User: Fold this.
Amino acid sequence: MKRQFSAGIIVYHNNGGEIRYLLLHYPGGHWDFPKGKIEEGEQKEQTARRELKEETGLETVEILPGFEDHVEYFFRVKDDLYFKEVTFFLGKVDRTSIIISHEHRAYKWLDFKQAYERITYQNSKDVLKRADQFLAHYPKSL
Assistant:
């Protein structure tokens, strides 16, 4: 079995006290967070920031200290079975206008309930729930 490691960011924006999360629509039809493969020599947070910039054009993101979460899953490409681990950070942006890459079909800024319903996979829904709970107890202003 092959192993693959990725990193991404659960991106949020504070819209006058209302938190909105960024979701991307992938060509496979699913909705998820910006993420991508960790390149050789890269640290997880470097990958997450690079992928965010490549996939959305967002260059400035404030990564919140104290939040790092993981999802693990298996997927198949032809006859090869992969084990994948994705590390997620939580990051705040001030800008909501983005330019999606050719890797995606669309994007949406959604409140927690809408994002939770839109996300395709349960493991990503669980990460969103933990991120939202973290924000609810975060000591700094959102």
About this structure: DSSP finds three helices and seven strands in the chain. The longest helix spans residues 122-136. Strands lie at 2-15, 18-25, 31-32, 35-37, 62-77, 80-92, 106-110.
